[in-house]
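Collaborator request log, item 7. Partner lab (contact: R.S.) asked for a structural prediction of Transposase to inform their binding assays.
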Amino acid sequence: MESKKCSNKNCQRSLPVGYKHKQCENCRNKRVKHVGDVGKGVLGVGILIGSTALTIVTKGKFNLKK
Ligand SMILES: [Zn+2]
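Returned to partner:
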């Protein structure tokens, strides 16, 4: 029986027979972690932009009052 290999070209680990996924467990975990990090990064940038915009708006109001 032909054994499957991980679809990640940098990995090429042989997958167990009957394995449902194209990538090995290691690569799948990495991918999930990567997506999670990107999600957190986007969220962090969003918060940063939001708070910066809020700061600018607040300072603008303060300057107008002076
Ligand atoms: Zn792999």
